[in-house]
Amino acid sequence: MSSLPKIFVAGATGLLGGRIVRALLDQDAPVRALVRPGAGEERKRALTALRADGLELVEGDITDPAERLAEAVGDATTVISAVQGGPEVIVDGQANLVRAAEKAGAQRFIPSDFAVDVTKLDDGDNFMIDWRRQAAAASAGTRLEVVSVLNGAFYEVMTGFMGLIDWEQGTLSHWGDPDQPLDLTSVADTAAYTAAVALDPAATGTLRFAGEVLSMRQFHDAVQRGSGRTLRLRHLGTADDLRAEITRRAALTQNPFDYVALQYQWCMVSGKGKFDTLDNARYPQVTPQPLTDFVRAAAPAL
Ligand SMILES: NC(=O)c1ccc[n+]([C@@H]2O[C@H](COP(=O)([O-])OP(=O)(O)OC[C@H]3O[C@@H](n4cnc5c(N)ncnc54)[C@H](OP(=O)(O)O)[C@@H]3O)[C@@H](O)[C@H]2O)c1
């Protein structure tokens, strides 16, 4: 039986949450993973495939009444949230999870932040990051120790969702100064750092990690080396041009998700969401993967 404290993970069926569960189990930490009753079968199967001695699955939703959710948290000492969703999940749901964690007697809470430096941004810079600051404000009086883990942008997002790379056209498009440093980390390394933080009783405040800090020029070079492909670097405009493009698109749609990828890019290429310091050295046991190696391994699927 493990002597490590039990960790509760909400969002365990998700991209990051599943990797956090795996990283904790790799450290022999006992894990209680919250699974929504309606969770997709494939997502549930991926988690149950991990079924190890230390893994308990518990059904529930972070919007459940706090009494019931507290039972789900059980005897876990640290609660990690890796949920994703709208304000009902990120703001109200996480505030409810904090209340439940308090009722259950937990000591620490790691919110679903996992982004660029949320503390340096202002309302309106990125609506999804605004929700994270609202969530922090909603739980400001908690007796739990809140430890926020920040990772910059996922390698997976930079080479996929952001829409920077067009493999068919052979281009890598970007906004802003090509020499502006950007904080980048893979999902697996973000999970490894989060597990390290969860198992570190002395961790407090906001901790910032990056697998690599690369300018767009260096990112371009790493993607080319990793993929073995030549990509033309296309400059789309300055960071101010990008801000104007976001304003233009926002006026054309009711759905902010139409331009959220641009908001994330602006937070990075403007330098506003850049980490001033890194906490990688706190956990030397985590050796983050270089972007080139990530792209080399992922290239066939990209
Ligand atoms: N820095 C970056 O580049 C970057 C990129 C992507 C994500 N992130 C961050 O990483 C975190 C996790 O994102 P992700 O991409 O891993 O999300 P995801 O794959 O969409 O997974 C979201 C998880 O939240 C769960 N969930 C949603 N609503 C819930 C509720 N009411 N109660 C309980 N569980 C609920 C989902 O459960 P079901 O399986 O039941 O739906 C799922 O397990 C978020 O904070 C996100 O912003 C950062």
Automatic annotation (TrEMBL):
GO terms for molecular function: oxidoreductase activity. Keywords: NADP, Oxidoreductase. Residues 6-237 form the NmrA-like domain. It holds the Pfam family NmrA. This is NmrA family NAD(P)-binding protein.
